[in-house]
Give the backbone structure.
Amino acid sequence: MNDLIALNQISVLLKIISHPSRLAILLSIGEGETCVCHLETMLGWSQSHISQQLMILRKAGIVSTRRENRFIHYRLVDPALLDLIRKAAHLKEVVLPVLQPTAKCECSSCCKYK
C-alpha cells in the first residue's frame, strides 16, 4: 500500500510540472529567485496567467515565496527539479529554451540598476 502512495505522489508531481507554461516558469526561475514582473518580461505572458500557474506550483510545494514591499519573489523549493527537467529534455533529445528578459521590469531588483 505504501508503494502505491509513493507512486501516486510522484505521478502528481509529474502531472503538475508537465504543463508547458509551468515548465517555462520553472526554467525561468532557475536556481535563483524572481518576481512575476521578471517572468512577464521573459515569457511575454500576462501577469494573470503567470500568477495562476505560480499559484498551482506554490500549492504543490514546488515553489516558495518571499515578499519585498509589493513584490513577491519566487524560488524553487528544491533546485534538483531542474535536473529532472534537463534529463527529460535529454531523453526526448530536445534543447531547452534559454529564456531572456525582453525589457526591464519595475521591481526593486531592477530599480537598483536604473
